[in-house]
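Aim 2, interim progress: modelling of the iron/sulfur cluster-bound target.
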Amino acid sequence: MGVPISQMWTVASYVLGKKIRREKRYPLVLMLEPLFRCNLACAGCGKIQYPAEILRKNLSPEDCFRAVDECGAPIVSIPGGEPLLHPQIDEIVAGLVERKKYIYLCTNALLLKKHLSKFQPTKYLSFSVHLDGLREEHDEAVCREGVYDVAIDAIKTAVEAGFRVTTNTTLFNTADPDRVRQMFDTLMDLGVEGMMVSPGYPYEKAPDQEHFLHRRQTMRLFRKALGNPKKHWHFNQSPLFVEFLKGNVELECTPWGNPTYNVFGWQRPCYLLQEGYCKTFQELLDTTDWENYGRASGNPKCEDCMVHCGFEPTAVSETFGSLHSLLKVARLTLFGTKDESQLPELESVDPPVPHFDRREISVTLDDLQSSAELYNMPNRERDTVTAMSRARPT
Ligand code: SF4
Ligand code: SF4
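Predicted structure of the complex, ligand included:
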């Protein structure tokens, strides 16, 4: 099962609607953290280092629904902590499905098999399983042996039961690109719908501070891991974001695009930084000094950040912002740099690299058809979804 066309259509029409109404800042994915407790203690995690009284807290289903309704984002990602430890997670998911939200329930999968019967397969729900590599790498990243095998077993079970299953992978400077590529093969063979990869953010609170990637390291790693992608690989992230990770397209952060709500309230300014909390989403939008964030701001906390929660909304907004942009992205996809060896040397060329907005393009219907086929999209949707293909600069 691929990403439902209805999900792509919902996101595209939502973004276009916001553009038409000239709304400057709008959310795309709500990061809903219903708790911070976890049954693992990964070395690179910046979310679980709270005192016991905070770790014991749960957002109630009503809190969650209020935040979701207030925010209005079409997609809700539920990270944590481990959401399956929440005693009412099934109620929360059911309420979001009722609201027709597309949900990514992020889990380390230790409890997935046990709790699977609490959920019903639906196009609105996807389990996003945390996997940071093959057996050896993943067990090391999560600091416990055997977790990889449990996760793989849970993925198989969930796929067989008809659930949408995706994966999320965080890479550090220890990642071997060839092993990452092997992991992509393995996951696609298991029948996952799509994979999401992102570099780790250097959380100040994470126990392991040595293995976070700096910007150039990120680009080098992702060029090798994602370069010359195999046709059967499917990524659950926008093509433009993939090119950004490889250093082929320059994007700026959109911190309000993935707002975060948790037991403290609305987190300022993004999922990664904690610089205060607001009572309402509107207050977050109105009172945050957004110009202090993103790489252009010069904020050292943003310098090396290339994490999906900041840049994926930018990529999606650019892609679906207008028909003109859609065609531009399609043009980049079809006529961009095919040979990875032709890309500028990261050692000698400083970002920013070519920005797609500056290019004049023309795209024929045949080109769109080719792109749609490349990504196995139904013909009838090609005009809309072609731009979801990988974007490359010319
Ligand atoms: S599974 Fe996720 S939430 Fe739990 S410790 Fe690891 S990174 Fe943190
Ligand atoms: S660049 Fe990263 S850390 Fe900075 S605001 Fe954006 S998402 Fe947050």
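Confidence is low (pLDDT under 50) at residues 348-394. The two ends are 32 Å apart (CA to CA).
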